[in-house]
Specification:
This protein has helices at 3-10, 13-31, 67-100, 105-118, 123-134, 138-165, 168-175, 180-217, 228-235, 243-286. The longest helix has 44 residues, at 243-286. It has 287 residues and is mainly α. The radius of gyration is 22 Å and the shape is globular.
Length: 287
């Protein structure tokens, strides 16, 4: 991702919002590696469910632990989950796209049928199956979400990839001896990049929500590991009595998911503007 693209995203108000939120998320995750206001393992039985104060900026939970410190530490766990999930779904999705636009019609048709069949399996069911041998872990979230989102990405991206794969410049490249990998990286991926980025940003936002849901079900982030889903799961039973402890993690998850989705849209618009400008310049140069 180039600096010029980020500048194009920054020029729009919604782009500035998404960049500021994502930058704060990364900064807090890095800071939490070596500093939090309170130790995560410091509890106070005489100060449970405390309201926000100078000592505890967002109050305390049912064990007397500092809510702000746990949310800070949870930001790095969620960031790790999002990065791994997006990487997994991107690689897996591109692999399936490659098979679906293959020049071997039998392989391409079979791949389309397999993707259509597998995409009907809910991500939660995949996570439940993986949780049997692996137990509650970050691996369960990453593999289940990456597998499900990768299939969805392949299905959405396939039309654009098929159009590029059957284009005259790809035919010319193949006729000149270009390998399949070279055609994929230099001709097909650049043409599907706007759609690909939007789908990956949606996968990132959905991964944050999935972490909260799967951790609440007991098959996500294991107990003792800080995450936004863990903070929600441990306090949601007391929402009628201590709503603030649920409000903070819920608010953070909502803002981050919105920022990820908006960032994907802004990045797609910036890429499309670049392609249109390049096409206009090429047309003027060719006159």
């Amino acid at each position: 991702m180039t600096v010029s693209l980020l500048r194009a995203v920054w020029r729009k108000p919604e782009g500035r919002f998404s960049l500021v939120v994502l930058a704060l998320w990364i900064l807090v995750a890095l800071v939490s590696l070596f500093w939090t206001p309170q130790s995560l393992w410091t509890t106070d039985g005489y100060n449970v469910w405390a309201k926000p104060s100078a000592a505890h900026w967002l109050g305390t939970d049912g064990t007397g632990a500092d809510v702000f410190s746990w949310l800070m530490a949870g930001s790095r766990t969620n960031l790790l989950i999002v990065i791994l999930t997006v990487a997994f779904s991107g690689v897996f999705g591109l692999l399936m796209v490659t098979l679906m636009v293959s020049r071997n019609s039998a392989l391409a048709n079979t791949s389309v049928v397999v993707v259509d069949a597998l995409i009907s399996i809910p991500t939660v069911l995949i996570a439940l199956i993986l949780a049997v041998p692996l137990g509650a872990s970050i691996t369960v979230i990453v593999v289940a979400c990456g597998f499900g989102y990768g299939l969805n990405l392949a299905r959405v991206v396939r039309p654009a990839a098929l159009l590029a794969a059957r284009s005259s410049y790809v035919e010319s490249a193949l006729a000149n001896g270009a390998s399949g990998i070279r055609v994929l990286t230099t001709h097909i991926v650049p043409n599907i990049l706007p759609v690909l980025l939007v789908q990956l940003s949606l996968s990132a936002g959905t991964a944050v929500l999935a972490e909260s849901g799967l951790t609440y079900l007991g098959i996500g982030v294991p107990s003792g590991v800080p995450s936004w889903g863990h903070s929600l799961a441990t306090s949601v039973k007391f929402i009628n009595v201590y709503p603030l402890t649920v409000l903070w993690p819920g608010l953070i998850v909502t803002v981050v998911v919105i920022a990820l989705n908006v960032f994907g849209d802004a990045l797609r618009d910036a890429l499309e503007e670049r392609y249109v400008t390049a096409a206009q310049e090429e047309a003027e140069y060719g006159r």
